[in-house]
Amino acid sequence: MDERLPAAPLWRRLCAFGYDLLALIGIWVFITIIAVALNHGPVGAAIVDGEVRVQNWWAQAALYAGLWVATGFYYALSWRYGGQTLGMRPWRLQLERAGAGTIGFGLAWLRYLYATLGLLLAGTGMLYCLVDRDRRALHDTLVDTRMAVLPKRSS
After folding, report:
1. Full-prediction pTM beyond 0.85?
2. Which domain holds residue 44?
3. Contacting residues for 115 by C-beta, under 8 A, at least 6 apart
4. What pLDDT is stored for residue 1 in this prediction?
């Protein structure tokens, strides 16, 4: 792997993830509002005796799957076009691919899938960068990418 730029430490990745959550919450709220409007009320739930109760698990699962797909589009498009999400920009992080070549849309989706699985396993996929000598998370290792720290811009 070309080590032109230093590898990103875990704390920087987590800060960028926190910033990305702010953008994602906006996307999730927008999608949920549309789903609630189309459903004329809570999706897969009903208000019974002043409490929201689940009435249709499939409808709720479909909503959550839609939110996961929308999140994947956010990450995949960001990584594909520019190598950075909104949260990665202020922390000067950029996703790189080993060798010459860009990160394709399919590779970005595969990285997102692996990152999701690593996150579901108590974050072990991300914590892997603490033991990897190249500071790569498990999903980076699996798809042969790395997170680099960009140099500061001079004014």
Report:
1. yes
2. 10-149
3. 75, 125, 126, 137, 139
4. 46
